[in-house]
Amino acid sequence: MGAWGTGIFSDDMTQDVQDTFRDHLLKSHSPEEATKLIIEAYQDAIKDLEEGPTFWIGLAATQWKLGRLLPEIRDNAIEIIGQGGDLKRWEDSGANLEKRRKVLEKLKLQLETPPPPPKKLKAPYVDSTVWPIGAILAYQQPDEKYCLLRVVDHHKSSCGISPVVDIFAWRGTEIPTMQAIKKLKVIRGRRSADYEIGPIVVVAGSAKDCPKDRLHVVGIQSKPMPWQKSWNYLGTNSFTNWRVWDSYSSDLLRFALGD
Prior knowledge:
The protein is α+β, with helices and mostly antiparallel strands. The chain folds into two domains: 12-111, no CATH class; 127-257, no CATH class. The protein has helices at 12-26, 31-41, 43-47, 51-65, 71-82, 96-111, 178-181, 245-257; strands at 127-128, 135-140, 146-157, 160-172, 189-192, 195-197, 200-203, 215-220, 239-241. Strands 1, 2, 3, 4, 7, 8 and 9 form a seven-stranded mixed sheet that branches. It has a two-stranded antiparallel ribbon with strand order 5-6. The longest helix is centred in the middle third of the chain and has 16 residues, at 96-111.
């Protein structure tokens, strides 16, 4: 179903609708123009008996939150919720069905109240990797010990360009030489049936996320690894954010080093 929770925006469809509507507004389209464009783009979903109600609910919730609620979108969503909303999608989800029902009832009450004033929108942060492929990075953890990363690729998405890194099975207080680093192994292994450790995409949601004051380039290891071109890192649990890198890397190092 593409949902990971019962909240209005805990769903792929409503997240996409929200992001698309915001993007149109940031491109200087009026709410009316943005609404027309998004309806044209989501015709297949709108015609779907299960996804259609979710689309209208997500669009109305987005417009209310941004202070740009159009009367026809509000009325349509209120009518859909009154008819049961998208509860058909939740019929086999046990207790979540009643949770979703309460979420929709709360949204209906919200839509029946005046929306807040139009919010000033800021363009989303665009991640920008500054390290070349092959860069060896020393990252200083909170206990002042270092771990070592190697940039093996760049991941490109609508959010920008993020580094894809390996983490070496090493931790210490003195940064080793490039010659010594060549002898180190990167962390590999299967922690569970669905989690195989491979290269990690590390994203930044804002300029403050990446702790560049604790990251130092040690050198460049230009020779690519044999697996680098074939490893499907997008198919593993290998995305994280710089905000949680301290705990994320510490957990991997405990797994690899046993400390």
